[in-house]
Write a structure and sequence with these properties.
By secondary structure, this protein is an alpha/beta fold. Helices cover about 50% and strands about 10% of the residues. A six-stranded mixed β-sheet has the order 1-4-3-2-5-6, with helices on both faces. The two termini are about 40 Å apart.
Length: about 350
């Protein structure tokens, strides 16, 4: 049985299409809905991959291609389905953006052709779509207000990448995978990827399947048009709950993983925090040793003028070194606080 409690208005009673003319009203409705349904399932549509990543590529190379693709292209649709901890669906909002122009913006022609064949109207997007910047202001405020911290995706690396850019968290994805993981863990929250989760479920082909195939295997009805962010987001939310019901395992072991990447995001942040903490302690020990040397020089009884001049120079060097170490310690404390800080403080 589908656990859909309520649905927004529109031609499809389960999915609300959001355009520039109804953005404010629908953000308000989403705001109210989040009081009871704080879990977000996300899906995006984008202009395809310009760089293709070969199968089996190491994390760093995969991230480099992913970063290039996301930074060079513009998101077309971003959709969220909100649900509660029991899997009840509160609603689905499909945000349609006007920033992408297939005539001038970077894209994969095959992907654009595919989206058109599946009913995406680029003319309407250009005419009635939302400016990403305007969306970011409205949506980010709502996220922070409700402290949204749990996101459900399917093969969600690109979804999370476009989410970060759409919200203006960064102007472009950072150069390293480590920095990206840091941003996701601290600014987005906990991510659970169904494609990764399927690897632990018997009969789900080890996760080597698409969303449509997963729906067929779990006998889940689709609402709306496939390959539209709204329908895919709702499908993701429904499949997540169905997987939790059918498979007896602790799904939290999948939290923090995005399919295709081997490292758990929270572990990276934890390692970073520990590394910075160790650096702080080392700097503090250095400072203590330098202070002892300075005190020893200060209280030393020296009669010879040459020796006194020599010790004075040594004292000044130690003093300069101490300032440097203290600065190193302060910087470390700043980044340790940043690493340990919870989202949206």
């Amino acid at each position: 049985m589908d656990r859909i409690v309520q649905g927004p208005r529109g031609d499809n009673p389960l999915i609300t299409e959001v355009w520039a003319y109804n953005l404010d009203d629908e953000i308000l409705r989403l705001d109210h809905c989040l009081l009871l349904y704080p879990v977000m399932s996300i899906d995006t549509e984008f202009p395809g991959c310009i760089k293709r990543t070969p199968w089996g590529t190491i994390d760093e190379e995969l991230y480099a291609d992913f970063r290039f693709n996301v930074n060079q292209t513009k998101v077309i649709q971003l959709c969220v389905t909100v649900s509660d901890e029991s899997g009840n669906i509160g609603g689905t909002w499909e945000f349609n953006f006007s920033d992408f122009d297939p005539e001038i913006d970077a894209h994969n022609p095959a992907s654009i052709c595919f989206l058109k064949q599946n009913g995406l109207d680029f003319g309407k997007l250009k005419k009635d779509g939302i400016k990403v910047r305007k969306f970011a202001i409205r949506f980010l405020y709502t996220m922070r207000k409700h402290a949204i911290h749990q996101w459900i995706t399917f093969h969600g690396l690109y979804d999370i990448g476009y989410l970060i850019l759409a919200l203006g968290v960064v102007k472009s994805l950072p150069e390293t995978l480590g920095e990206f993981e840091w941003i996701v863990a601290r600014r987005v929250g906990t991510v659970r990827d169904l494609k990764h989760m399927a690897r632990f479920c018997e009969g789900l082909e080890g996760g080597n399947l698409g969303l449509e195939k997963l729906g067929q295997l779990l006998d889940q009805k689709r609402f709306g048009l496939k390959h539209h962010a709204g329908s895919d987001s709702l499908m993701t939310a429904l499949l997540h709950e169905k997987m939790l019901q059918l498979y007896d395992f602790n799904a939290e072991i999948c939290d923090g993983f995005l399919y295709g990447l081997s490292k758990k995001f929270e572990e990276f942040v934890g390692m970073q925090s520990h590394r910075i903490y160790v650096q702080i302690k080392c700097a503090e020990v250095k400072a203590m040793v330098i202070r002892k040397k300075m005190l020893k020089l200060f209280y030393a009884k020296i009669c010879d003028e040459y020796e006194l001049s020599k010790k004075f120079k040594e004292f000044k060097v130690l003093q300069s070194h101490l300032r440097f170490v203290q600065q190193e310690c302060e910087i470390g404390q700043f980044y340790y606080y940043k690493a340990s800080n919870i989202m949206y403080q």
